[in-house]
Amino acid sequence: MHEATTLFLVTLPNIHQFKKNHSRNKPFFLQRILDISFARLCQQSDIRRITNQPPLSPIIKSRRLTFFGHLARTDEYADAIQTIFEPPPENWRRPPGRPRTIWMRNIHDDLSSLDLGICEARDLAQNWPLWRLMSLHSATNS
Length: 142
Prior knowledge:
This protein has helices at residues 7-22, 28-33, 44-51, 56-72, 79-85, 103-112, 118-124, 128-140. Mean pLDDT is 76; it is low at 1-8 and 23-27. The protein has 142 residues and is an all-alpha fold. The protein is extended, with a radius of gyration of 18 Å. It folds into 2 domains: 8-53, no CATH class; 55-88 and 99-142, no CATH class.
């Protein structure tokens, strides 16, 4: 019940590692999509400039914070809120093979760039327009 993990928890480090291994002189993803020959050496910054495509990490961070705001505004008795915001029972252990990082730990890390704690962020998220601006600003300026 307390396994509130997302695909992003597992894939974000993998994306960074993949980009690190494959983008030394080859912006693999965009180069492949644009059908640019791998024989042609291109800097990732050049391809990002041409396509006006931002890095993936800020997009994921922004959407994670936006979803956190959505959860923070829901009814406090909803199952999702209790699952996310309450700590797991003392005797609960994560099944073998599951990531150790929980979704709230990623949220905590995202909020640390804003100098906010979880409780403060829940209060701020009640103001939807303000939270939307903060989540976008945090992701694009980190």
